[in-house]
Design goal:
There is one protein chain. This protein is α/β, with parallel strands linked by helices. The chain folds into two domains: 69 residues; 120 residues. It is 36% helix and 25% strand. It contains three helices and six strands. Strands 1-2-3-6-4 form a five-stranded mixed β-barrel. A hairpin with a 3-residue loop joins strand 1 and strand 2. The longest helix has 43 residues.
Amino acid sequence: MARRFFLPLFFGLIGAAILLSLGTWQVRRMQWKEAILADIDSRIAAAPVAIPDAPDPERDRFLPVEVTGEFLPAHVDVLTSRKEIGAGYRVVQGFVTETGRRIMVDRGFLPQEMRGLPREALAAEITGNLHWPAEVDSFTPAPDPKSGLWFARDVPAMAKALETEPVLVVARSPTGDGIDPLPVDSAGIPNDHLGYAITWFSLAFGWVGMTLLFLWRIRRRT
């Protein structure tokens, strides 16, 4: 009789242990990711500094900066949308600093119906964060030359189109012309490990339940 119980119990315990270990690993991954997100949030909210002479996309990602100068006429409108508002555009505009550097400023969200209105903002003091968003993949359409629409922020390509350095500052506060700032934050960085952990723990619970049911049926037959 003991032999009949041994193999089901053995595989039941082994399977449950593996599933529980996977769930525990996901919990540790969740804690690791939360620490990374907390570090990113603290970097984003730090006191602004001057733009480095040669910003590095890895070292200076999310670096808070402050810059004074004037907007240039050239800009690109990147198609996007916002909850409860709908379709609109991210306005990325050329900007010349008081020291003569030509950079780009992501001014934020402009509703679709306001795209054709004149933009009067010139001199500005910009506080924001350096960013090199990874939004382009093999499925991203090329910019539409007829409408002037872009479908993702591509820092090198936008810099070439606007004749600036490949430096993008995402504004934290309004820059005028009815454009709503869309500051950098960590909300878009996924942290799905809690869901994965719940899935593994649920599978472990189901595995134990099925093992107990199987053992009960063996006992009844015996």
